[in-house]
Amino acid sequence: MEMTAATNAFAALAQETRLAVFRLLITVGPNGLTAGDIAQQVGVPASTLSHHLATLERAGLLRSWRVQRQIFYASDYEGTRRLIAFLMEDCCQGRPELCSADLTQAVPCGPVGCDHDT
């Protein structure tokens, strides 16, 4: 991940509503939620939420798709994985394996599970 992309991702997460949306969708998993469900669970008006969802999607942290008249949003696990890897790449003088096992094992996780779980 390039510095600009990482900066954009961090900027997207540096706002309370967007961070709440991101955390909600990480928890929900790959099937995601509709924009209306997200608005209800986060407690913001749908008109306000659309801006936040677009910001997170442009930052590579969410993905969206349409099913008939509804738009679903879910975490972009690959984008999240790249952001975590960016944070960890210089860990422990360039030796991320020396850092916490929990952090280094989180990197290969995705919507279908974790590579290290198999």
Automatic annotation (TrEMBL):
* UniProt domain HTH arsR-type: residue ranges: 1-95
**Keyword Calcium in annotation:** no
* This protein's UniProt keywords: DNA-binding, Plasmid, Transcription, Transcription regulation
A Pfam family: HTH_20
Q: Which InterPro entries match?
A: ArsR-like_HTH (IPR011991), HTH_ArsR_DNA-bd_dom (IPR001845), Metal_resp_trans_reg (IPR051011), WH-like_DNA-bd_sf (IPR036388), WH_DNA-bd_sf (IPR036390)
Against PANTHER family, the record matches this protein to:
ARSENICAL RESISTANCE OPERON REPRESSOR ARSR-RELATED (PTHR43132)
Its name, as the record gives it, is Transcriptional regulator
Native species:
Azospirillum ramasamyi
